[in-house]
Design a protein that fits this description.
CATH topology of one domain: Rossmann fold
InterPro entries: DEAD/DEAH_box_helicase_dom, P-loop_NTPase
Largest sheet: 7 strands, parallel
Shape: elongated
Number of helices: 18
Helix content: 40-55%
GO molecular function, one term: ATP binding
Keywords: ATP-binding, Helicase, Hydrolase, Nucleotide-binding
Organism: Oryza barthii
CATH superfamily of one domain: P-loop containing nucleotide triphosphate hydrolases
Number of strands: 16
Pfam family, one: DEAD
Strand order of the largest sheet: 3-4-2-5-6-1-7
Radius of gyration: 36 Å
């Protein structure tokens, strides 16, 4: 027996209700209303309120511009009596407004005081909250850890907490600081988790303050498709927290990626340089407003000969993004490319590896030999080619004579290497007495002495360039801010090579490319072997005289 239309309709409605109640296809009430309205519109059955209702034209509104609405004063009575009544109503309204104004004026001081106190309290709360990572960053880290627990345990994310907090401080500073990590060739899974979680925290705080965040906010450049898939898997758990990420690589068709970019605006973009430039040329994506740029594996990009593509991507970003670079410390070729990408600005070096190779990457170390202490220098005046005159006096000790000549020659070399620029040099001596003597012996009419508590700071001016020199002894070296110097000249080597390594690490902490010059004399013979080992581990050139002393 065939079923009737009513039975079939009931069956269809039952299936629809079941589908709507299922958790997979459940939607909000707003979306359900939109869907139902669209279904009614297509079937031709509209509600009364959804019909094409309109008001008829009237003599007062012949073209129906007011859509049936009346103007103010249209229904007001005419004549003397109605006018008097209207005037009475206006007067009573004025009295009521005056009473309300008086009552509100009494409450206004208390209200303003309460509002000011609330604003001050909120500002104080925000200031205390924004000077440290928020709870949302921890939530993001835990989401990534829980997603990776099934694969490798995911327990190492919080083990790199000190590195992650330093990274957060650099990215959240005003203005943000560029970061260079030379612990390895590429970023580890834990470091990537901290990096994307830091970006999530910054996005959430900007939105909380009402700042419009441009998409994509984070651009993560990777050298290969495999690395893009790995970074995308780390960012995938953040989707439930409102952070969307998209990976672009040659493994997928460009048409599919263009259609995907049209349907969403991702906060995080993981891409290879080649595919990203193709999409930019097709105007499928705009990266001009990127706030954070990550270059994972700078040495891999140089090996693939895509350095020019990295520079093109950096030029396409019109804003001033915070740049984080991961690179291998053993390859010095990438130093010039990294300097070009960051624009020669100061950086912060973060390393989870405490080896001297990682801590002093891209720092040039030069050892200069000094004649024996027993020799004496005659009193004379030396003329530098760039018209810098330095008087040297015949005296005893390492810094009194030939060492002064060595310092003069090294400063001349630094001045020529930084032509048309300003070089900041930290000159380290054995004691405060020798520091004062060296400082006074290097001052002449062409040297402008700057203000310093001990008079050990001066400037050498010439037509070639400018050198700002600060002389410090080993006891007061901790008071020197290494961030202000790109060159360190050690006139007196310390008794232990560990102190030299600390100077080397301090010199490389905030500069991407720097120099460390050392004057080596016969009194430092015991340091020949450990110093040559440090130079060899850092990939530096070991002088022949130092190699002979180390082997003897």
């Amino acid at each position: 027996m065939a079923k009737g239309d009513d039975a079939l309709a009931r069956k269809r409605n039952k299936v629809r209700r079941k589908r709507m109640r299922s958790s997979e296809n459940a939607v909000s009430a707003r979306v359900a209303g939109i869907i139902a309205s669209k279904r009614r519109r297509k079937s031709g059955k509209r509600r009364a309120c959804e019909g094409m209702c309109f008001s008829l034209p009237t003599p007062e509104d012949p073209f129906n511009d007011r859509h049936g609405k009346k103007r103010k004063g249209d229904d007001e009575p005419t004549g003397d009596a109605p006018a008097a009544a209207a005037a009475g109503r206006d007067e009573s309204k004025k009295k009521k407004k005056k009473k309300k104004k008086d009552s509100s004026a009494k409450k206004q001081p208390a209200r303003e005081a309460a509002a000011a106190a609330a604003n001050a309290k909120s500002r104080e709360k925000d200031g205390a909250e924004y000077d440290r990572p928020s709870k949302f960053l921890v939530v993001c880290l835990n989401a990534i850890r829980d997603a990776a627990a099934s694969e490798d345990g995911g327990g190492g994310i919080h083990d790199t907490g000190s590195w992650g907090v330093e990274l957060w401080n650099c990215c959240s500073a005003a203005p943000p600081t560029h970061v260079l990590d030379t612990s390895g060739e590429c970023a580890t899974r834990e470091k990537t988790a901290w990096l994307v979680s830091t970006a999530c925290d910054i996005v959430a705080r900007k939105e909380k303050l009402g700042v419009v965040v441009s998409c994509p906010f984070l651009l993560y450049l990777v050298p290969s498709q495999e690395k893009a898939v790995q970074v995308r898997s780390i960012c995938k758990p953040l989707k439930s927290l409102g952070i969307h990420s998209v990976s672009l690589h040659p493994g997928a068709s460009i048409e599919h990626q263009i259609s995907g970019l049209k349907s969403c605006e991702p906060e995080f973009l993981i891409s290879t340089p080649e595919r990203l430039l193709e999409l930019i040329a097709l105007k499928a994506i705009d990266i001009s407003g990127v706030s954070m740029l990550v270059i994972d594996g700078l040495k891999c990009f140089t090996d693939l000969n895509v350095s020019d593509k990295l520079c093109s991507i950096r030029d396409a970003i019109l804003s001033n993004p915070q740049i984080t670079i991961f690179s291998d410390p053993s390859d010095r070729r990438v130093a010039a490319l990294a300097t070009k990408l960051v624009g020669g600005k100061k950086i912060t070096r973060l390393c989870t590896n405490d080896s001297v190779t990682s801590r002093s990457a891209f720092i040039t170390q030069k050892i200069h030999i000094c004649p024996s202490k027993d020799q004496k220098a005659p009193k004379k005046q030396l003329q530098i080619s760039c018209a810098i005159k330095i008087c040297l006096f015949a005296c005893h000790g390492k810094l009194m004579g030939f060492s002064n000549m060595q310092v003069k020659e090294i400063l001349e070399q630094i001045l020529n290497d930084h032509a048309r620029k300003t070089a900041n040099v930290l000159l380290v001596t054995a004691s405060d007495h020798e520091a004062q003597h060296l400082s006074s012996s290097l001052k002449l009419q062409n040297c402008t002495v700057t203000n310093d508590s001990h008079g050990n700071s001066f400037t050498i001016c010439s037509s070639v360039g400018l050198i700002n020199v600060l002389v410090k002894d080993w006891e007061n070296i901790t008071t020197a801010n290494f961030e202000d110097f790109d060159t360190v000249l050690v006139a007196d080597l310390p008794p232990s090579v560990d102190e030299y390594i600390e100077i080397l690490a301090g010199a490389s902490c905030h500069v991407l490319v720097g120099e460390v010059h050392c004057i080596f004399s016969s009194a430092d013979a015991l340091l020949a072997k450990p110093l040559s080992e440090v130079l060899t581990s850092c990939g530096q050139v070991v002088p022949e005289f130092l190699r002979k002393l180390a082997s003897s």
